[in-house]
Amino acid sequence: MSAHSHTRSHPKATGSVDIRLPWWALALPMLAFVALLLLIAGPAQAQATGSEPAVGQILERIQHSLSG
Fold first, then answer.
1. Does residue 4 carry a pLDDT above 60?
2. Helix 54-67 with 23-41: angle, nearest 10 deg
3. Running DSSP on this structure, what letter comes out for residue 15?
């Protein structure tokens, strides 16, 4: 008695690339981006100057452009 091997029902097209990323390949860069953004957006001790820091102004402009 011989065992039948499983074959694909539709063969892969020549020249096509099948890339599958693991979940962490997208999650880790997003987590790093969010962590750095939170560090920039909420400085705990960075009020040495009398005016608002440039990073705060940039974040306000981004927020304004996204909301409007």
1. yes
2. 120
3. T
